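Intended use. Records such as the Cytochrome c-552/4 domain-containing protein entry shown here are meant for training and evaluating sequence-to-structure methods. They are not intended to support clinical decisions.
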Amino acid sequence: MFRKLRFVSLIVTGICLAGGLAVQAQQGNGTVPAGKNMLKEKEFRIERSMSKQAQACIQCHKQETPAIFSDWAKSRHASANITCLDCHQAEEHEPGVSKSHYEQYKRSDIKWGTKEYRVPVAAMATPKDCSRCHPDEVKQYSKSKHANTLEIIWKIDPWLNDGMNSDWERSSGCFYCHGTVLKKGPEGKLDPQTWPNVGVGRINLDGSKGSCTSCHTRHRFSVMEARKPEACGQCHLGPDHPQIEIYMESKHGDIYTAFGDEYEWKSAPGTWTPGVDYRAPTCASCHMSGAGEVMTTHDVTERLSWETQAPLTVRPENFKPFPADTNWKVEREKMQEICMQCHGETWVKDHYAKLDKSVEEYNEVYFKPAKAMLDKLYAEGLLDDSKFFDEKLEVDFYELWHHEGRRARMGTAMMAPDYSWWHGFYECKHSFNEFMAEAQHLLDTGQKAHKYENFPNANGDTTRPEVLFGDKD
């Protein structure tokens, strides 16, 4: 009897479901009025609290560039009713105003292509624009090495100062991460040598430095994305500063690989908590996010107690190209407090003792003797100091600090033993021995180093950007 009742019940349930589906289908066709309890498709509505010009931007981009619209529609900006105009609207006289965008308001094939909706807009949103809602983050960022990295490389990089690579090699390589000085061509369009570019040290037409979309890519501007190590790995990779490879080798990276899909990536800014939202840190966790009593920052120069990317390792406030406005002891205490959210004090202090000793050995055993030998060769006239990279010993010296030396120091700092030793100090030894042996041979024989007379593409502009250095060459 029970089985028969259950069977009848299933038949009735099936009829009800079928009837419900039929009603829904009819409602979808507009033949039956929707009841209060019937499911409705949720649509994205843009009519509320927006100007007609803002609505026009969204509707037009929804049609012309649907991927941009979709990205924005899924962003926190959209949830907060922040539209295209809130970031891109400009004054008529501003240098970043797009002339070609005005042509959109002369179209007859779309509803929004009329003068009624015309608004001056800038193609790129800059930190100055972002500061209207994020003033603290932009102020912190402006003090960082990220925002000022273009100035830094012009002060120290022989590729630029000696013109040893072409302008296009720089545009497609160096400047893509470090940033370009944005310029407009004769027709008012952005110069392709400077745009597109989202480098962290980009100099914008409104005078601001940097690009927030380096880490929070448009038009989602996701906090989650910037918290993941892959965001930093766009630029911090390769033979000279392989932080992403170092991180992935470390225990931190191993835990991220295993458990990263369980992390709570979308916590509100300032609330992302170790041990609660994530098990092991990412780059952002250590260098930017808050924890304990340490506040969140967008100045990645904070919390550093050594400049491990410099030729000679120095304290950040003693880095001459861009002295940090910090005290290394204070910043070390901040970073150690971040570490001690997960590690004991002895573990943390001993790690820093290891880092300090590695820095000392790099400075004293490898860099200083090699630099003294390089200077001696220049003084003896055995190396030509008018250009850099056109003699092998110059390249060997450069790679000793810029490649192997950085990997040794950064590998130690981020606990990646293979990079500290095999890619680092092991390679330092070979580079150092070969450099010193060839240098001593030149001194013993008085023979000048071979010079690459036909160095390829050594035609880059050596004029320092006036916007950074004034009119002094």
